[in-house]
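Support reply, case 0932

Customer input (verbatim):
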Amino acid sequence: MAPSFSLFPELESVVQHGSDERRHDALRRITALFLHGAERFNDDHLRLFDDVFVMLIREIESKARAELSRQLAPVANSPVKVIRRLAKDEDIMVAGPVLAQSPRLVTADLVEIAGAMGPEHLYAISSRAAIDEPVTDVLVRRGDFTVKRKLAGNAGAKISESSFAVLVRSAEHDGVLAETVALRNDVPEHMFRELLARATEVVQRRLLAKARPETQAEIRRVLARVSGQAFAVRPPRDFSEAHVRVRMLAEEGKLGEAELAEFARSRSYDETVVALSYLSDVPADVVDRLLSGERPDPILILCKAANYSWSTAREILLARTSERGKLAPSLDTAAANFDRLSSATAKRVVRFWQLTPVEPAPAAAGT
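Our regenerated output:
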């Protein structure tokens, strides 16, 4: 059934010469007419309503626009032009409902609005039932902590790996965000490990308390790997000769980052392990287990905690892989992770390793 447009002939007069009350009354009547027949209207009808709504909202106060936004937001075939106009309104009471709900806003609309508007508009977008990656990329880049938290807790938001990296960095100083990101099902595994390594002990405990049983097991496994407890048990290595050489340098005041880097550069694995043990105050057996693991993270952590350069960490990575006959990790990825890792986080993990109990190797007992 076609809509009755008996209201429309008087519209121009109402817009140009009518009072605010008459304009508001016209908007209410036209809105009611649209909502009554919305499911039956074709494209021609929608274009006509679009023109009428756009004409009216130019002349009405924000309270009336906000009411129109609330009514049109959930309607699947609301007129597109008026929805876009409402979504770009500077008043969040007007823009909020359509930004959060309207299915008529496509990805391009949301990217444009997220790139131009303020935090309240970004927060409204972050609560949508479904959000594509191009939109979440803008929200993560421009949003404040409330937007990041809302987005991270939205299971319908698709988050790219680059945006996850930003969230993980932000989460180091925001325990709520850390918990929210860690409990998502789609966080990449390597970023999940990084997030847990950066998290405070309080956050780690809260994650264990909130997580599902299968997630709890993964959290414990990751924490164990980060702390060096998950490496396979091997016979203790004899570092006695390396201890003699390194101790002499230490007693002469000649043991530092430069000497450590030179041991690594010359692929002197035993001396590298013992020198790193002396310099970090972590037992040599623990350093050996850390360096022999699958991941490069422990090396990055030890070097960052000591405020060493990336070039030193790189040489140790290469010495480790050469000794163990493994393929070298992606150095670009390791360098990026090293830059992102904070000294405070690294020192917190190293303190744990310093207290890790080990049985001393017989050959090194006299050291």
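We compared this against your earlier run and they match. Two observations from our side: The two ends are 95 Å apart (CA to CA). Residues 1-7, 229-233, 324-329, 357-367 have pLDDT under 50 and may be disordered. Please reopen the case if you see a mismatch on your end.
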